[in-house]
Predict the structure.
Amino acid sequence: MGKRIIVLGSSFGGYHAALALRKLLGREHSIHVISSEEVFTFIPSLPWVVMGWRDPAAIQFPVAGKLRRKGIEFTQDTIVKADPERNRVTGGKGEYEYDYLVAATGAELDFAAVPGLSPGEGHVHSIFSVKQAVAARDALARLVERGSGELVFGNAQGASCLGPVYELAMMTDTLLRRKRIRDKFRITLFTNEPCLGHFGVGGFGSISRMLEDEFADRDIKWRVNSRIEAVTPDGFHFDDGAALQSDFSMIVPAFYGSHAYMGVEGLSNPRGFILADGRLANPKYRNVYAVGVALAIAPPEATPVPTGVPKTGQMTEAMARAAAWNIAADINGTDKISGKDFDVVCIADAGDTGFYLSASPLLPPRNRLVHRKGKGAHFMKLAFEKYYMASLRHGLPPLDFGW
């Protein structure tokens, strides 16, 4: 008898988990993707949208038709409750039963943690959807047209996706230098990290010093161990009494996993990230697998202000394929593989240069660490985005050098 497999989410984790499952399992097994979005967005390129350097259409791809052509059912729905005791999830359109569940739902943004932090209140912008990026693009363009101002980029307490504000601060510096008006603007970056380049994992060798030197050369001011108390129309107020004036700001909030997973003992941690073993299966509910941001990963060390562990798109795809393999192995009675031996490859763009990072494993101590700065990294990220989107649209083989 065929198994029913539900995949929640259609971004890096969900999309690739579903395709991998379809390759590994016969058509007697059903695969059903349920996602709140019908469109895949290449999230790493959203900072370029903010800069006005990329049209959103270039980094989006409608997934429903491609999945259905592969024999994968697709439903656009938002899951509001998981019930692993009954092998069921509930969305706005109804209930869905499964034999195996892959949770690849990404994150919910915790703007409510800080008064005034929500973009809806009009004081700050964020960077996790095309809508947010376009709103930020338009606001930044107005300020640049005005010709002067205070620009603030920051990671709020608890944030884990820490890289985008570094990219945006350096890209904005590049943009203003090209327009020859850099001297009319002050750029400041604040972060919850204990040092620049900590990234929630204790840092990557000399990356911290590299970033300090880069920021010094660009005259970007920074502050670490920052905890926001409130955001007001004129700027940011921190718990140590400091304040930053702001005419434009881009802030990364802390994440939740999903409220749909909360309150189920043994399924998730208090913030809704799913608990999983080394094969990405939940220890209590063995037919539930977690992929990408939905997976709970404990920080390797305590920091003065809370930080989270990042999950890149490259890591998420690797998890997706491991989870798919292990579900197929469970069904077919073959050997499973580890899904938590995380390596990371990351490219951060700075507008006129870039930073390449490769580490194995993600968390220290490491067997291998490579990091370089140069225009080659900038062009590598450009090339990867174009190839990646082409691979989605035309079925090209994956090109695995990260972003």
User: Anything to note?
Assistant: Residues 343-403 form one domain. Residues 313-332 form the longest helix (20 residues).
